[in-house]
């Protein structure tokens, strides 16, 4: 794991420190470092939120999803008496868009990249699936892996933690598409999504 990528990931995601399980925290960090290296990214902050929305970074979105999901999990616990696994929620949120390290290399200027690995870096596989694959590769628990794919139909059985990630992702994405383009997430998906 490159020290530079490790430092970038730790600076980008202070929420990593809230994952109680040291091994899980290391796996999340490792998945990001692998994704960044294979994608050839010079800086984690250069990955855009969407292929056509560069005003917001992927880091901002991932942090927003994590914050929204954790607050919703707290409400589920405190108000409804549910028992979400907060480490799973945090790890899955932090990893839900790590696959953009691969998918978005074709949508940024070449000066933001150093030699992307063509075996991984392409838009051929949706980022939620490549993110799942990265989480699997570094040994994240199945509960985290299951919560990463966030498009309809990717996972047949949804867990409480997976639903938290999915709904937080939608909430953050709606805010971003509204602020950046003046349209809802659904309108963005209908007009611009590459995975429908």
Automatic annotation (TrEMBL):
It comes from the Archaea. Residues 54-184 form the HD/PDEase domain. The keyword Hydrolase applies. Coiled coil: none annotated. GO terms for molecular function: hydrolase activity. The keyword Chaperone does not apply. Pfam families: HD (PF01966). This is Metal dependent phosphohydrolase. Keywords: Hydrolase. It comes from Haloferax lucentense (strain DSM 14919 / JCM 9276 / NCIMB 13854 / Aa 2.2).
């Amino acid at each position: 794991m490159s020290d530079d990528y490790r430092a970038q990931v730790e600076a980008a995601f202070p929420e990593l420190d809230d994952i109680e399980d040291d091994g899980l925290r290391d796996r999340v960090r490792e998945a990001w470092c692998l994704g960044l290296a294979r994608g050839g990214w010079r800086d984690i902050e250069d990955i855009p939120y969407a292929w056509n929305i560069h005003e917001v970074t992927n880091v901002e979105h991932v942090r927003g999803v994590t914050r929204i999901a954790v607050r919703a999990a707290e409400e589920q616990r405190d108000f409804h008496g549910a028992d979400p696994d907060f480490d799973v929620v945090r790890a899955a949120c932090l990893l839900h868009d790590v696959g953009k390290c691969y998918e978005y290399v074709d949508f940024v200027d070449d000066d933001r990249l150093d030699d992307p690995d063509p075996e991984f870096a392409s838009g051929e596989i949706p980022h939620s699936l490549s993110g799942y694959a990265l989480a699997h590769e570094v040994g994240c628990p199945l509960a985290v892996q299951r919560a990463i794919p966030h498009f309809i139909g990717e996972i047949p059985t949804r867990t409480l933690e997976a639903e938290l990630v999915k709904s937080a992702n939608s909430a953050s994405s709606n805010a971003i598409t509204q602020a950046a383009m003046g349209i809802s997430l659904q309108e963005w998906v209908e007009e611009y999504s590459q995975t429908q």
